[in-house]
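Class, carefully examine what follows:
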Amino acid sequence: MLKILLASVLWCGLLLPFHLFPLEDLPNDVVSMLLASILFFFIVLKYRSQMVALPVSALLLLVFIISVIGSSFVQESSFLFSDYAYLIFLFAGVLVAVAAGTLKEHGNDVVPLIAKSLYCIALITATYGLLRHYGVLKLLLPWVTGETTRLLGPLNQANLTALVLGLGIISSVFLLISSRLRYPNTLLSVSYMSVAASLTGSRAFVIFVLLIIAIPMLKLCVSPRVMSASRRVVQNRWKQVVAIVGLVLVITFVFPSVSRPISDSLIQAGFIERGEEEAVSDRFRLTDDYRSEEWRKLQAYPQIAENPLFGFGPGRYGVFSIEADKAIEDPVRMGTLWSHGHNLFVNVFVELGIFGLSVMLAMVAYLFALFWRSEFLPRDYFVFSALGALFVNNMLEFSFWFFGFFALAIVLVSQVDRRVKIKFSSSFLPVSVGGALLVTSLVSFAYVGSDYWGAVKGFHKANLTQEERYAFLDAKKNRFVGGYALKAQIIREQVSLFGVEAQIRELERYMSWRPEMVFMMRSAVLKSVIGPQEIACDRVKETVGLYPNSVERLADELVEAKQLGATFDIAFIQGCLAEGMMYWVELSRNLPPEKGG
């Protein structure tokens, strides 16, 4: 049962398809973290009279938690949503580490189970994605809406879908070389996964596949003696492995040409509504690179960071991004908020400062030491190939924001890591600790879940009852999800002139955490109402200069405020709005944009 619970953390984290605004990924994380708490309780219950084991890497994770706490405390604003979320997320990771390490210490090898789970998850993801891509899934799951040019799996994000499929192919190779999957079945399954992956348009998927060959080569370079002694692990299957990699790459680049006529026919028939498919080969030809432009903002970090040692605070990358936009010359904007840096090191450095980055680099160095010392048996081959895929993804995205991937990395490391054995003098102590953590988790997740559902229902339901409206309004007080609930309320509700100054204070507090478009837009309207008009003008220009999609809604709300009795000079503010849009006007003319906002 313990192994099943461990696998269920991954299954729920990577497969639940309930992505409802304003907290699209919360169900996956909440359910998988709750399962982690249940798993930890049953682990300490079973081994209460023996011992539990903590992987050495988890000690570094505890130090990382200290860096998060330190970063949260040094911020001027009080603890806000992401401060709590980061701590719960990381502590849940420690629970997974203890569970996986203890199972390993007592002779339970979970690597085959993890590989089989990822294999099945990838097959389900491919099926889900293909059904959705060709318009069938909306007939089966009505809440799955929005047809995009890139294939989306249950995680509702193309690059994460490609990561799941890449992990599935890596798992297939492990199952093959460990004689758990026959070669014809392996070819069939990886072909199916590759068909789906080719339509995600993910360039990183190609790297995931190449890691299957690259990881053994890297091991040969760093540990030639160990590798030569264990080369028999893959020697008999090496030609088959190379053939699999070649097959996957061919399908990845060829299948979109087969799919495009099919999609065009479905679009013309009105069965699906979307633009032209984005194939991997198309995305390799892209010339714009918003990531590198975003990373260029790091040059402004020394001059804008108030506390370089501890950074801007957990979850506050967006604050840095906008402050750096003002500080650098000729910023390149996407028109959306960068809530993270699309790179693990960049994100940790900005949010947690030099201290957090130092701990992260120590973790990476420790993992490389584990790789160097490993015997490189099939299980090691699988563990480090899968970790390599996760690492590559986190250099370009940030999949560790999703607990399923974070827990997967922790479980994988625990299978090759050394362990610290902990034996309790009384069997009552670990059970009471595990029970207290489980009860706390149940209460916390019930608290979060209630307000999450209130925010979701409040945003999506056409006609709210009085009780539902109170729940919708009350959700913004939640310490974990309140900011997202307020975001949903602003989008749904019209501007109100009741308690304008209090509204502005609340918005400023939230903008110090995450300067989302809706927060800045409503703040611009309310500042226009109470003045002074020069300050209001600056906020309006800044808002539309960063978020061009805010123009129409902002203009409408200014008119609404005027109709409600506000006495500001709307013509002056509309002029500020037009001035703020000049960045985007010049950009559309392919001229070097002047700094806007």
Observations:
- Residues 592-597 have pLDDT under 50 and may be disordered.
- Residues 495 and 561 are 7 Å apart (CA to CA).
